Amino acid sequence: MKSLIIGGAGFVGGYLTDELSSAGHEVHATCLETENIAENCAVHHLDVLDKEAVCRLFDEISPDVVYHLAAQSSVALSWKLPQMTAEVNIVGAINVLEAARECGGDIKLVMIGSGEEYGCIGADSCPIKESEPLDPNNIYAVTKAAQEMAAKVYARAYHMNIVMVRAFNHSGPQQSSAFVISDFCRQIAAVECGLAPPEMLVGNLSAKRDFTDVRDIVRAYGLLAEKGVSGKVYNVGRGNAVSIQYILDTAISMSHSDIKVKRDPKRMRASDIPVIEPDVSEIFRDTGWKAEISVERTIEDTLNYWRKNLKRS
Ligand code: A2R
């Protein structure tokens, strides 16, 4: 099996490369010229905005499966750079769809979107089913909804083999500290090695989110490539939201340092959705996948990652 990961240098890309390599796939991964990437795969430089280059790469590799991860993936940055976000996430995705169409054959495409596409979800709509109307609430979410709609059109019009994913919060070692689990763990590690005073800066702790370990997420992507039904959209998540307070308490309980919690107005969001939790029965039905790694283990592994990496820096 020949797999091509587009956007292989990001947080998820490295884990997906490991998952597919250890399953015996021939793995090809792309990154931008400015990025570093693990060496356990064939590496190709690619900007998804260069349509000819995307087509050339598909012709050169003739992949069986393509995972499209390349994106401007930050919600915050999408407010600051809406045009760039739209270009990379929508035009980039269409370039990938076009390249697969032109390349022909029976390539399976796994297009990675986001739980953000649902927008402001009321607690009564949880767990959120894939049939819930999309109501994106930020520019990043708009672009991911557009990517998904374009992919559906290609699946229908050209009978292409495409599955679409709405991934909910995922976390684990190596994630940027712009995300909450990684942020809390990094702050604790900084206290422990004397780089910061013994306090934690936090935002809204009552919001509940659905956290899945990145190693489970990439296992889901592999199974969707194998067993996902073409033209279908799948929620990918644990299906069991926990409060940010629980994440905080669990992370602090793993440290021997005496850490005081402090509210940081900069970390409070004007409108935070109280609970986001997906219904994950579709992916379970079609692939048998469900999350296996506990939230506690994700926190522990992320904390240990920061303990090692902050000490080194
Ligand atoms: O923005 P950078 O320099 O970190 O590069 C990102 C890369 N990327 C591109 N690749 C090719 N052509 C472009 N024009 C382009 N612009 C950005 O895609 C990064 O290396 C990768 C996406 O990885 P992350 O930002 O770390 O996202 P993550 O957490 O791996 O999520 C994977 C997918 C994304 O589509 C998310 O929107 C979705 O899962 O949740």
How would you briefly describe this protein structure?
With 313 residues, the protein is α/β, with parallel strands linked by helices. It contains ten helices and 13 strands.
Characterize the structure shown.
The chain is α/β, with parallel strands linked by helices. It folds into two domains: 2-170 and 211-236, NAD(P)-binding Rossmann-like Domain (Rossmann fold, 3-Layer(aba) Sandwich); 172-209 and 240-312, UDP-galactose 4-epimerase, domain 1 (Alpha-Beta Complex), CATH 3.90.25.10. The chain is built from ten helices and 13 strands. The chain has helices at residues 11-22, 51-61, 75-80, 82-103, 139-158, 180-192, 214-227, 244-253, 281-287, 295-312, and strands at residues 2-6, 26-31, 42-45, 65-68, 108-114, 161-167, 170-171, 199-202, 208-209, 212-213, 233-236, 242-243, 260-263. The strands form four sheets. A seven-stranded parallel beta sheet has the order 3-2-1-4-5-6-11, with helices on both faces. 47% of the residues are buried. The model has no long low-confidence stretch (mean pLDDT 95). The structure holds ligand A2R. Residues 7, 9-13, 32, 35, 46-49, 69-73, 88, 92, 112, 114, 167 line the site of ligand A2R.
